Amino acid sequence: MAYPHPTDRPGGEPVIHVGRATRVTIALALGAALGVGAPRAQPAAPWGSADTLRLGVDAAVRLALGEGVEAAIARQEVAAAATIVGIARSYALPSVDFLGSYVRNLKKPVIFFEIDPGDVQSFEIGQDNAWTAGLALRQTLWASGRVRSGYRSAQERAAAAALSGDDMAAGIARDVRSACYGVMLAGAQTEIARRALEQARRNVAQISVRVGKGVTPEFEMLRAQVTVANRRALHTRARNAESTTQEALKRLIGVALERPIVMTDSLSFVDYVEPLEAVLARALASRRDLAAARRTAQSAEFEYRARAANDMPLLYFDASAGWLGETSDGVWPGDRETATSASIGLTLAWPIFDGLRNRSETRAARANAEASRLRVRQVEQIVRLEVRSGWAEVQAVAEENVAAGEALALARRAYEIAQVRYHTGMSTLVELLDAELALIESALNVSETLYRYNVALARLAYSVGEGPLLGEAEEEGTR
């Protein structure tokens, strides 16, 4: 839906700017369509069902983000991407390892000593049972930029994943809104078909009386009965379409297919007046997939720097502490059969030759960084194209909606004249049915253009970068 100003929605979320609202609802469009009054309201719940879900468009979006499978998958993907920051941070923190062992010497090793020329003596060393335990610590002191660049790359990748998740949430909102509008359209067209069927049956009743009096030929009765049969089939198709659109909406919002739903909103027209230049500027500043592409390009640049630094030296601080115990008297050594040790030191590592592996990896990282920068330009062009196309579609369908409304008014007037002419004997039933058919088609066209207009608005809102955030549903659930 559209709002006059960003502050009109709680939280100040940017939305489509519109001028003074000019609303034309399906109820008004159909109120006098076939001369039978305002459209019948949907029941609060089907007979015998207390589990009917009544919801509007915004409620359906919240439900999809809170209960829908697609939103749940997106949240898990974002959570998985966030872990790479912790992995990258671990390279800047010290690592501590514990090492321990137990050895049972089934045959103790020996060493050899040459006492005199030609006289070699062997001596057993060690004990039957040997125990060792120790701690080893290593802290990176200098990595030539590897750790810093890797950490920055991980941060940018995690931020890009979060933006992609928000973009998915906006896409889900767009799809749910379109599905809701589809349900409303199907409901409106079912109502039109019902009205048309009722009018056809009234025609049969009226013509039956005229045939009985001998003032109307039997052919007109047959023609009216054929119209009833045709409109009954139209009504059946409309009801089936309504059921299909409801099931599609239920799948999106995570509702059981057997649970009945009733939409509390109706299709409406809100004049869209924001100029194309302003819409483009907002899209380039707010579009989430474009922002994600930019963060991905930054991540690829830092990844390239980290790869290039792999040929540079590293400096580590090392420390260790150990314990050793051996005994042949029992299994566990006594106090006089143990010893401890400790050491600290610096280790310098400088890769000299790795088979040119890092050289190839660095070239690949540089090419990936350049591709990411080009991808940003590509997404920018896609955004511009989508916004221009969406804005033009909104304007075109708005004009169609005006024309459809005018056609409906003319068809209604023509039908009223045709009724008078038929009942005064100035025209045939065929003329009346032609006028009635034109009125039905005009009413269907009004509902169709209103549906297309609202769907076009939903698509344009996504193209501009509007929509809920992925985390909003979780935040609402904790309140």
Question: What does this 3D model show about the protein?
Answer:
The protein has 2 domains: 6-91 and 145-311 and 356-477, Outer membrane efflux proteins (OEP); 94-142 and 314-349, Outer membrane efflux proteins (OEP). Helix content is 59%, strand content 14%. The protein is built from 10 helices and 8 strands. The strands form 3 sheets. It has a 4-stranded antiparallel beta sheet, with no helix packed on it. It has a two-stranded parallel sheet with strand order 1-6. Strand 3 and strand 4 form a beta hairpin. Helix 2 (57-67) packs across helix 4 (146-213), helix 4 packs antiparallel against helix 7 and helix 8 packs antiparallel against helix 9. It is elongated and about 145 Å long. The protein starts with 25 loop residues before the first helix and ends with a helix.
